[in-house]
Amino acid sequence: MKAKIIITPKKAVLDPQGKTVQTALAHMGYTDVTGVHIGKYIEIDLAPGTDKAAAHKALNDAAFKLLSNPVIEDYKLEIE
Amino acid sequence: MNFAVLQFPASNCDQDAVHAVRLLGHSARLVWHKDASLGDTDCVIVPGGFSYGDYLRCGAIARFSPVMQAVKQFADNGGLVLGICNGFQVLTEAGLLPGALIRNRDLQFHCENIFLKTATIDSPFTNKIPAGKILRVPIAHGEGCYFADEATLAKLKANNQILWQYCDQDGNLTDSANPNGALQNIAGICNDQRNVAGLMPHPERACETLLGSDDGKWIFESIFAALKNKPVAQAA
Question: Does B145 contact A12 at a Cβ distance shorter than 8 Å?
């Protein structure tokens, strides 16, 4: 079992990496790109047979407390 | 006065902070991050560096070190806590200060002298800074851009919690004097109780003219003066 957590900067937060990459893409001719947002992807291995609902609850808590900073980031959690 | 300077894996301004406090005539000692107690302490300094390699986010992992529980309790009891650079990042991650420090807007690591304007002398960290004095102190960081949402920023302003702002040598808060893109040129803030403060610049590296500036000493002198007039906080 795996948990996947995608962390992205909040809309109101300056994202200089995203802006720089967007400019680079424009220079390469990708003119349809209207925004780039750079975040983090975290994969967490879970023991086989782990209770999915319990894992979801625990990892939500971990994502809020440690894996993301709610002041500047949003996250999405998926377990498969 | 007794200063406790925390030491995390990859702290690297811990010895500088100890040196600065001793140079200015007070005692300081290092407290290892695994210690659950601060011992006899009047003020805690969370020093600069790259605690835990800055993995995940700057300060994100250090805040879970056992010593941080003691720091939180010390702060809750009114004890003075100053976070410098990475220490500021640790204090925001720990929720002891509002907002967050994000990547510098130009993506560059800045290592240079900057000028600081003191926004208020109404705090234990600024009370001795001479009126109108522009402090010249170094910065050395890649993630020092202060961010807070609009509501938090409004609260900081309303409560006079902004302590220092980046300025030019004449004290003007210009965009070109802002090294990292921090909102409102914010270099340092305090909590609403005014006993916990953090700043990105390094006052401990500017306490003797041999190092190019001794302006940083005014921040330490402010702390000494505040401690003299204050009952001792209960160390955790």
Answer: no
- In order of A43, B134, B223, the CA distances from B17 in angstroms are 38, 21, 13
| B177-196 residue pLDDT tens | 999 999 999 999 999 999 99
* Sites in chain A below the pLDDT cut of 70: none
Q: Do A66 and B60 touch (CB under 8 A)?
A: yes
User: Helices (DSSP H) in B35-187: which residue ranges?
Assistant: 66-76, 86-93, 150-158
In the block, tokens 């010390």 appear at: B74
A35 contacts chain B (CB < 8 A):
no
The model carries a pTM of 0.93
Length of chain B: 236
- Chain B: residues touching A (Cβ < 8 Å): 56-57, 60-61, 64, 92-93, 99-100, 102-107, 145, 147-150, 181
CA B208, CA B136: separation in Å to the nearest integer? 12
How many Cβ pairs closer than 8 A exist between chain A and B?
37
ipTM of the complex: 0.86
CATH number of B2-228: 3.40.50.880, 3.30.420.40, 3.40.1160.10, 3.30.1060.10?
3.40.50.880
